[in-house]
Amino acid sequence: MDATESSKLSDGIDAPMWMFWRRRRYVLVFLAFFGFFNVYSLRVNLSVAIVAMTENRTVQYPNGTVSYEQEFDWDSTTKGYILSSFFYGYIFTQLIGGYISNALGGNYVFGVGVGVTAALTLLTPLAAHGGFGWLIAIRAVEGFFEGVTFPCIHAIWSNWAPPSERSRMATIAFSGVFTGTVASMLLSGVLADTLGWEWVFYILGAFGCVWFVAWMVIVKKSPETDPYITPKEKEFILATLQRSAGPVEKVQHPWRGILTSKAVWALIVSSFSENWGFYTLLTQLPTFLRDTMHFELQAAGFLSALPYLVMGLLLSVAGYLADLCQIRRWLTTTQVRRYFNCGAFLAQTVFMLVGAFILKPGPTLTCITIAVGCGAFAWCGFAVNHLDLSPKSAGVLMGISNTFSTVAGILTPIVSGQITASGSENEWRTVFYIAAGIYLIGCVTYWFGVSGELQPWSIEAREKERNHRQEDGNGHVNEGLQLDQKH
């Protein structure tokens, strides 16, 4: 059932959409929002904390001598490896996350992934004081557990999101990414300056642990297993997903079709491109503003958060517009994905180039803010496109694309650290030019390869599953008849 057809059905709940607590699927979205808030606040905190950990401090000795020392004497290359260490573990659980979420339930996998990361975040200061190796190790383990989150959320949407609300539900939840980024950057700067950098990890880790308890108690695998959903809402969701009530079948993924699909590879390139620019700024912007633009730590934390605040605000608007374009039949699903994604990439390319060329605090930060904000519209393309191509395999598709995105997360801090060894303006220009070029490659690739339609290999796999169930059903009927005849 497409978006227009599903929009004609009603969930029978007489309440406006903003009253999310009246609809069980939007309670899930609300908690998923804070789940992604935690995912990124726990990931980003080190980008700000590491500035405080390595800045020069005034030390006065008993004899009156004054010196300037760093608590952790790490150069830009070392900091690059530390910031990328999270992704050493993250890359290994992308495909695993998509696969086990179908078997165990995306709700369990998502909750455990965030919960364990939060618990380990509380131990990060201890690891840092233990040495460079311990810090890298604990960040890699955090990444390992957090790596399941994006793939398994698509497994959740495949059970809960009607086609007419798919972009809206996903982008509202994903806006937690940017809200978490903003909150983490703002709070990390303040906490590091007032209480000490260790409290960055204690406060954010504790909040993640509280969220974990709420998620595990409230969120269920599917409407069929939720005891608190109204019968009308359950019928509405199942009807739009063209499913009957009953246990969810084990998914057989058409691997050959997936790996040879032009649409899948366009999605992979697009995801990599967006994440290259995203992680470049996410990990390097506080350092760039502090060391090259000469802002104080709190100001650098606040200004680093500004682009993500804009993106978070625009993301829900972009998701609503994407759904509206499909419901009103102004654009096909393929056109929505293409125009939103590629238009955003083109704007990001232009503003990154302009910001790099000017490289002055005010104009450059404005260009970066606009570039990151435009990324909200790209998320209505590549970030939800998996559900268009194959709803049942969406978690695995997200795992594949996010594996390549994680490569960007590993490489960008290392590449940026190598390029900006002395922190000169020309070195930072090179970093921004590379990001702009990769945005442009993603734009061209996605334009020519995108599809918003259910793929032939997905239809074929669904038909095989249906035929297999019918054969099993006929077999059980025949066995029953034979037993009756014997008796």
UniProtKB/TrEMBL annotation:
> Where does the record locate the signal sequence feature?
none
Which residues belong to any copy of the Major facilitator superfamily (MFS) profile domain? 27-454
Which stretches of sequence are listed as region Disordered?
Answer: 465-487
Q: SUPFAM superfamilies, alphabetically?
A: MFS general substrate transporter (SSF103473)
Recorded catalytic activity of this chain's protein: N-acetyl-L-aspartyl-L-glutamate(out) = N-acetyl-L-aspartyl-L-glutamate(in); 2 nitrate(out) + H(+)(out) = 2 nitrate(in) + H(+)(in); D-glucuronate(out) + H(+)(out) = D-glucuronate(in) + H(+)(in); L-aspartate(out) = L-aspartate(in)
GO cellular component terms, alphabetically, are: basolateral plasma membrane; lysosomal membrane; synaptic vesicle membrane
Gene Ontology MF: a single term: symporter activity
Q: Which UniProt keywords apply?
A: Cell membrane, Cytoplasmic vesicle, Glycoprotein, Lysosome, Membrane, Symport, Synapse, Transmembrane, Transmembrane helix, Transport
Record's bilayer topology term: Multi-pass membrane protein
Q: Where in the cell is it found?
A: Basolateral cell membrane; Cytoplasmic vesicle, Secretory vesicle membrane; Cytoplasmic vesicle, Secretory vesicle, Synaptic vesicle membrane; Lysosome membrane
- Kindly list the biological process annotations in GO that this record carries: carboxylic acid transport; monoatomic anion transport
Top-rank lineage group of the source organism:
Eukaryota
Residue spans crossing the bilayer: 26-53, 81-101, 108-128, 134-157, 169-187, 199-219, 263-282, 302-327, 339-359, 365-384, 396-419, 431-449
Residue spans of biased composition, Basic and acidic residues class: 465-474
What this chain does, per the entry, is described as:
Receptor for CM101, a polysaccharide produced by group B Streptococcus with antipathoangiogenic properties.
Name of the protein in question: Sialin
Q: Which organism is it from?
A: Anopheles minimus
